[in-house]
Specification:
By secondary structure, this protein is of the alpha/beta class. The protein has nine helices and five strands; from the N terminus they run ααααβαβββααααβ. It has two domains: about 30-60; about 85-240, 3-Layer(aba) Sandwich (Rossmann fold). The longest helix has 18 residues, at about 40-60. The structure holds uridine-5'-diphosphate-glucuronic acid (UGA).
Length: about 260
């Protein structure tokens, strides 16, 4: 009797142990997301969030409010206006624009509602006349500025109204010495501007001229301009054109020298 007991299941058992995976439902993940959103009014909250964000970006198109220094010399901070500068300064700025620095304009390329990323900028000679006005302008448009100046002819008072602003730093330093800084742009305005000043230390003046190449490349390297892709603006003087017959000199006036050879 016992020998006749045969396990019936063995007849239906597959002969091989091969594994067959579950069939894949192609829309499973999509339907799961839709179900998730429809539950507990989550979709409603998403729409409310979008509506609030749209409202904020419409009411406040740019979120980068310029820093207004407590004792700023300028009461009008118009983002792309330079009308409050003296004529000669305007000419310097407009030539800087032509050199490509205008591309950092905060207002021209930033889409509505997006905050412009401030640049890190070194201004050598930033405590001088031209430099300090440039610093005001850069700070006003939201950049971080490091002034490097040895106060040879410049004055701390020219930049004092920025003290306490986290976007401003002042370093007393002679630009002929190396300085390691990571920045996006370098405006090199440190220079004794008149014979009275550059005759004060004729040896250093001569050395500076001899070192000019070093000074520029040194600054470029010191400020890691090459590595971080920083732009470099070197300012000069209209005196390079020789004794001028016109004043003020226009960009079209070449004086006694053809600057392009
Ligand atoms: O050409 C012009 O239109 C202007 O030139 C100069 O203005 P600027 O070139 O800014 O000369 P400074 O005011 O003397 O500024 C030069 C700055 O460089 C600094 N500097 C100079 C030499 C140096 O080796 N290192 C250095 O940091 C000085 O301390 C100073 O802060 C005159 O000061 C202005 O009156 C004139 O209008």
């Amino acid at each position: 009797m016992g020998s006749e007991l045969i396990y019936r299941g063995s007849e239906t058992q597959p002969s091989s142990d091969s594994y067959s995976p579950k069939p894949v439902k192609p829309w499973a993940s999509v339907t799961r997301i839709i179900h998730y959103l429809l539950r507990e009014q989550r979709l409603l909250f998403v729409f409310v969030g979008i509506a609030i964000a749209t409202l904020i970006f419409t009411v406040f198109p740019t979120s980068s409010a310029p820093y207004v220094a407590p004792h700023s010399r300028f009461t009008t901070l118009i983002p792309d206006s330079i009308t409050y500068f003296p004529i000669e300064t305007q000419q310097k700025f407009s030539s800087a624009h032509r050199l490509g620095f205008g591309s950092a304009n905060p207002t021209s390329k930033i889409p509505l509602g997006l905050k412009r990323k401030g640049l890190r900028i070194v201004v050598t000679g930033g405590a001088g006349f031209v430099g300090s006005h440039l610093v005001d302008r850069l700070i006003a448009r939201g950049d971080s500025v490091i002034v490097v100046d040895n106060f040879f002819t410049g004055r701390k008072q020219n930049v004092m109204h920025h003290f306490g602003n986290p976007n401003f730093e002042l370093i007393r330093h002679d630009v002929v010495e190396p300085l390691l800084l990571e920045v996006d742009q370098i405006y090199h305005l440190a220079c004794p501007a008149s014979p009275v000043h550059y005759k004060f230390n004729p040896v250093k003046t001569i050395i500076s001229f001899i070192l000019l190449q070093n000074l520029i490349t040194g600054l470029l390297q010191a400020c890691l301009a090459k590595r971080v892709g920083a732009r470099f603006l070197l300012t000069s003087t209209s005196e390079v054109y020789g004794d001028p017959l016109q004043h003020p000199q226009k960009e079209t006036y070449w004086g006694n020298v053809n600057p392009i050879g």
